[in-house]
Amino acid sequence: MTSSLEQLAARYGEAWNAHDLDRIMAMHTADTVFRLHLSAGPEVVGVDAVRSAFGGLLTLFPDIVFRTEVMTFGNDFFVHQALITATLAMPLPFGNLVARPTGQPMTFTGVDVITVADGLVQRKETYLDISAAQQQLGMLGEVAV
Q1: How many domains does the chain have?
Q2: Which ranges carry the SnoaL-like domain (predicted)?
Q3: Residue 32 included in any domain
Q4: Which of 14, 33, 68, 80 is the most buried (most CB within 10 A)?
């Protein structure tokens, strides 16, 4: 038997991979919170602000795809580790540096810690292997292996 949390996680992932912002946001609470943990990024609070942030991400990476590697469930949360493939569509600032579109897809790992309240996403904390993305965008020098 599949739990309601597992069903929510599956629907949520499908909506993200379909780039369906309406479906994504229909699974969020009105007081939802999103935080992308990059350079001390601020919390984005409220459904309208989160919708705008997600819309911006889908504009930056219009072909983004999440392939689940690990999914872990708790009582009122789930953790989703995914291999992300995406092509940067427009310049993206990283502090004093700016990533420029290369036209080539990049692949990097991401982890979402998602807290659920009343069957909806209340909080989405996102962590990305940003150094892998920066390297693929030519922002970092060659890395010795």
Answers
A1: 1
A2: 10-122
A3: yes
A4: 80
CATH of the domain at 95: 3.10.450.50
- The residue segments making up the domain with residue 35 are 4-136
Greatest Cα pair distance in the chain = 50
With b for 16 or more beta-carbon neighbours within 10 A and e for fewer, the 12-35 pattern comes to bbebbeebebeebbebbbeebbbb
Q: What is the pTM of this model?
A: 0.90
Give 82-116 pLDDT, tens digit per residue. Answer: 999 999 999 988 777 788 898 999 999 999 999 99
Give the span between the Cα atoms of 113 and 99, in whole angstroms.
Answer: 26
Residue 48 lies in a domain: yes
Helix, strand, or coil (residue 21): helix
Is the residue at 142 inside a domain?
no
